UniProtKB/TrEMBL annotation:
Coiled coil: none annotated. Residues 35-319 form the PPM-type phosphatase domain. This is protein-serine/threonine phosphatase. Keywords: Hydrolase, Magnesium, Manganese, Membrane, Metal-binding, Protein phosphatase, Transmembrane, Transmembrane helix. It comes from Vitis rotundifolia (Muscadine grape). One of its GO terms (molecular function) is metal ion binding.
Length: 319
């Protein structure tokens, strides 16, 4: 069984709080392959982001969920995604890309049912969504899956003779139309819509609304029938859709852990808007015992997962 390393409410999750009441951080705690720490900077009075770390003697799960439009989707993912991962992994004899995709799809479908039930009383829930970044380590293998623009970056000890002692390796894909490759991908899926991606308010946005192309939730941009619903039309300006303009299909990266792998940073986009992958990795490398305190300057949800050489060796020997 997986054991939760975090609890709610937030005031009980994190060890130290900032003077403005909007910062939390938790010092190093053990996980199956090393230690982890957490830092949160709350951008406004309603915390829309969620995060969690679950551990067992043989596995570690990490999740960062960056909500938008409200906290409902990120809270839902925080409650349901890991149980689905655990359920499907048990049914199929272990983690795999298929298990992860099934867990994401089940979470998306169940949240859709919540939206349908809640629509008469809360029509705005159809426009609530969450980016979703997940890491899972089992038997020395790392799985990273994501929707949206939260990011996982690995810090790896460099080979001798290199100028920098640590190298940054990005392990996730940013599903944000500010990235030209993502923008072209969205445009290719909608050749009959010349306004599928437009530049407005200083950034590229899908239908002039949202920057990310993948998420949990955002039902009104995935289900055309919601835009035609009179209840939702009373809430805001509906967007005429011929087909979904967003998806909940995760990008997945699978990688064996190596002895030179030192740590992983899982963070929402607030960190990466301010720091390059290399700069964030250098901060963690130089401050291994106080990671949270040194990253709290940035508006983000951050989980840093460190590895020990002995743990990685044991995992490889086990395999």
């Amino acid at each position: 069984m997986l054991r939760s390393c975090l609890c709610r409410p937030l005031e009980r999750c994190f060890g130290r709080r900032g003077g403005d009441g909007l910062m939390w951080n938790m010092d190093l705690k053990p996980h199956a392959s090393g230690d982890f720490s957490i830092a949160v900077v709350q951008a406004n009075s309603s915390l829309e982001d969620q995060g969690q770390v679950f551990t067992s003697p043989s596995a570690t799960y990490v999740g960062v969920y960056d909500g938008h439009g409200g906290p409902e989707a990120s809270r839902f993912v925080n409650k349901h995604l890991f149980p689905y991962l655990n359920k499907f992994a048990l049914e199929q004899g272990g983690l795999s890309a298929d298990v992860i995709k099934k867990a994401f799809n089940a979470t998306e479908e169940e949240f859709l049912h919540v939206v349908k039930r809640s629509l008469p009383a809360r029509p705005q829930i159809a426009s609530v969504g969450s980016c979703c970044l997940v890491g899972a380590i089992s038997n020395g293998v790392l799985y990273v899956a994501n929707l949206g623009d939260s990011r996982a970056v690995l810090g790896r000890r460099a080979s001798e003779g290199r100028k920098n002692p640590v190298v940054a390796e990005r392990l996730s894909t940013d599903h944000n139309v500010s990235v030209e490759e993502v923008r072209r991908e969205v445009e290719a899926l909608h050749p009959d819509d010349s306004h599928i991606v437009v530049y407005t308010r200083g950034v590229w946005r899908i239908k002039g609304i949202i920057q990310v192309s993948r998420s949990i939730g955002d039902v009104y941009l995935k289900k055309p029938e919601f835009n035609r619903d009179p209840i939702f039309q009373q809430f805001g300006n509906p967007v005429p859709l011929k087909r979904p303009v967003m998806t909940a299909e995760p990008s997945i990266r699978i990688r064996k852990l190596l002895p030179q792998d030192s740590f992983l940073i899982f963070a929402s986009d607030g960190l990466w808007e301010q720091l390059s992958d290399e700069a964030a990795v250098e901060i963690v490398f130089k401050n291994p015992r106080a990671v949270s305190a040194h990253l709290l300057t940035f508006f983000s949800y951050i989980i840093c997962l460190g590895f020990t050489f002995d743990c990685i060796q044991r995992c490889q020997q086990y395999n």
